[in-house]
């Protein structure tokens, strides 16, 4: 039997792309040939990440005249503001003719894994008789609960909910939700503009008709929700992660130069001072006022911290960096987050709970201060705190889920995690879960087996 040839096409955001790059490695390890589609501006990042592999990378022309998006901006982290992401996602459909032309010229494809936001790839897949699997980068927990919420519109209306009123779904009576746990676009597609709601309906419908879903997680972590999804919702989802474990955390090449922040973390390790890692993913927009509160909270907490500000401008107009000198480090460039989380001085992670950050923190056995900001992050935060018991919630000043956080609340929770008894308990718990994650990915583990089964099933079917 010829080796399988698998086509991957991640959405143009770091959070959707990075795990698919890990998945590419897992597929190569199983003897598959892998072709990965992207856009020209995203190619350098992908090429660099896969430079030591045989993955064939193809970039498709991306439309340049999208209303509200500057030319050559082809990924969410470069958008002037995150609220513009649906325009980027909708414009991606214009790549369809190039996508199909290219497929036509490629060797026979066993199956494709394309992003959930590329619902239009289903039609192409069907045209060429190729099974399509979908990648959303969401847990079973958030996929199941978002679906149940969207199916329960009437229940939610009958409950006459305000933002903070708690309710339960009959299938999950042990969890209390508030309406703000759900992304408004998921809970009520009509509340968004027409184009966006059409886009959501289209990709959700395409997912339903696809062969299956790839989940970045492991069965033992959320078996109740995995079983619920596969029994009650579907299409079948295969749990093949945590994908970040496909690659050794510190892949040091010959010319590797230890970044200054790793040297700083090394020093903290020598001094015996635990460090709080602070990062909110690749795309969150954080207001200036909120940044001020983060600065004050971190400063007053007295803990050692390493803050990756990313695209958010943290200006040093108030002497902050001077005042925290020696115990606080602020970095504005792209870092290797896994390398930081794996550093033994890092003992806590103040995170927006993007699903990759959650997975990476679990694998590094670091407990989380959960501060969700958008998308399905409130559900991820709920899972981290209430289901897994590996984190504390950062409370907002008005009790809402992703509202404003005052420095006092931040200071309190930071101290609790880094210095309190609770922090110790959470660290123990995350060690156990991190161990289970590694077992799932090791030879013979649940994720290892699931990926083999998926390849065998689809490859054999297509031969
Ligand atoms: N990331 C990184 N370096 C950075 C910022 C982000 O390596 O400076 C990675 C992080 O490790 C994760 C991804 O980018 O793999 C972000 O995904 P996540 O789901 O956590 O958040 P998103 O960016 O999608 O909100």
From TrEMBL:
Keyword match Transferase: yes
Keywords recorded for this protein, A-Z: Glycosyltransferase, Transferase
Residue ranges annotated for the Tudor domain, each copy included: 237-301
CDD domains: GT1_Gtf-like
Keyword Glycosyltransferase found: yes
GO MF annotation list: glycosyltransferase activity
EC class: transferase
Secretion signal, residue range per the UniProt entry: none
EC number(s) from the headed UniProt entry: 2.4.1.-
Family, as annotated: Belongs to the UDP-glycosyltransferase family.
UniProt name for this protein: Glycosyltransferase
Species per Swiss-Prot/TrEMBL record: Abeliophyllum distichum
């Amino acid at each position: 039997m010829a080796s399988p040839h698998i086509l991957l096409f991640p959405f143009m955001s770091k959070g959707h792309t990075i795990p698919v790059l890990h998945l590419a490695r897992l597929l190569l390890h199983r003897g598959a040939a892998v072709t990965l589609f992207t856009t020209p501006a995203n190619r350098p990042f992908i090429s660099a990440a896969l430079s030591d592999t045989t993955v064939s990378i193809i970039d498709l022309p991306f439309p340049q005249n999208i209303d509200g998006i500057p030319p050559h901006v082809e990924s969410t982290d470069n958008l002037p503001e995150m609220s513009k992401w649906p325009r980027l996602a909708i414009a991606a459909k214009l790549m369809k003719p190039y996508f199909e032309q290219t497929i036509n010229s490629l060797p026979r494809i066993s199956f494709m894994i394309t992003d959930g936001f590329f619902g239009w790839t289903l039609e192409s897949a069907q045209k060429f008789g190729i099974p399509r699997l979908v990648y959303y980068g969401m847990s079973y927990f958030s996929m199941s609960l978002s679906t149940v919420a969207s199916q329960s519109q009437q229940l939610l209306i009958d409950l006459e909910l305000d933002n903070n009123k708690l309710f339960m779904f009959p299938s999950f009576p042990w969890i209390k939700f508030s309406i703000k746990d759900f992304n408004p676009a998921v809970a009520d597609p009509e509340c968004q503009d027409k184009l966006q709601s059409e886009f959501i309906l289209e990709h959700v419908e395409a997912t339903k008709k696809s062969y299956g879903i790839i989940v970045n997680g492991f069965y033992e972590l959320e078996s109740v929700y995995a079983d619920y999804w596969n029994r009650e919702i579907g299409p079948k989802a295969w749990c093949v992660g945590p994908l970040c474990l496909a690659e050794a955390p510190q892949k040091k090449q010959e010319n590797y130069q230890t970044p200054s922040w790793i040297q700083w973390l090394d020093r903290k390790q020598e001094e015996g001072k635990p460090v709080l890692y602070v990062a909110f993913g690749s795309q969150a927009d954080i207001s200036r006022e909120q940044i001020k509160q983060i600065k004050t909270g971190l400063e007053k907490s007295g803990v050692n911290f390493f803050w990756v500000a990313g695209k958010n401008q943290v200006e040093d107009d108030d002497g902050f960096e001077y005042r925290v000198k020696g115990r606080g480090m602020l970095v504005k460039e792209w870092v290797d987050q896994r390398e930081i989380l794996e550093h033994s001085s890092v003992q806590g992670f103040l995170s927006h709970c993007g699903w990759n950050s959650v997975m990476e923190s679990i694998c590094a056995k670091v407990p989380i201060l959960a501060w969700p900001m958008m998308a399905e992050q409130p559900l991820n935060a709920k899972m981290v705190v209430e289901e897994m018991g590996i984190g504390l919630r950062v409370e907002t000043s008005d009790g809402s889920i992703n509202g404003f956080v005052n420095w006092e609340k931040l200071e309190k929770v930071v101290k609790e995690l880094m210095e309190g008894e609770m922090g110790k308990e959470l660290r123990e718990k995350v060690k156990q879960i991190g161990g289970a994650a590694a077992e799932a990915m090791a030879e013979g583990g649940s994720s290892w087996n699931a990926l083999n089964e998926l390849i065998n099933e689809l490859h054999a079917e297509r031969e």
